[in-house]
Amino acid sequence: MTPIRPAIAAALLLAAAAAPAAGFFDDFDGTGGAGPAWETATWHNGPPFGCGFAYSEVWKDAGRMVLNVNAGTGRCGEIRTVQKFTYGKFTVRLKASDFAGGNTSFFLYTGDAGTASHHEIDIELIKGGTVLHTNVWKAGVQHYRQFPIAAGWQTLGFEWREDSVRWFAVDAQGGETTLRRQAIAVSTPMQLMLNHWRGDDGADALSFLGRWSGGGGPAYYDWVKVE
Hints:
- By secondary structure, the chain is mostly beta strands.
- The chain is built from 2 helices and 16 strands.
- Strands 1, 4, 5, 7, 12, 13, 14 and 16 form an 8-stranded antiparallel beta sheet that branches. Strands 2, 3, 6, 8, 9, 10, 11 and 15 form an 8-stranded mixed beta sheet that branches.
- The relative contact order is 0.24.
């Protein structure tokens, strides 16, 4: 057998590292917590988050994942996949909360926020679920755009490729409308995350989410898919 030259071997390793991860689907059937494919957050991120993540605010109900903001206890919900992904098409059907100062999200994440290790691709529904915030962070630097969006159930997603990220909406017939395309190269594997939280009414939270109204309640996720 002909030996593989070092340069060829390095290229093969690079190609393997950049290959898309296996697909993923969860329709959140059953009862109880998030399930074995997910980790549930049990910590407080600090500013601009105005609540701490807890098991008590994550549960399944009628085939949906519920992530709750509990205005009375100061607790909220976040889950992330055990699996990491590199490239792919990420789609969610969700219904954001409608109270002021809240955030309902679907995103990829890795690293320490604001540092060179921080990479992230975001869908966040803010301002009572009427604004879609799209963002990609590379090495702690963000590139965002916002769009008005109707309240209620939405099917949204992003397609992460080697050289770009494309955000899209899906209509009732399954047709896609591209909302935005950002030329950017991000290749670090990331976990898929869902969270629902409120701002702390500090300066960063006020500029991003607006003032928290004192409200709370659930955000719903019908299904998530990676392909």
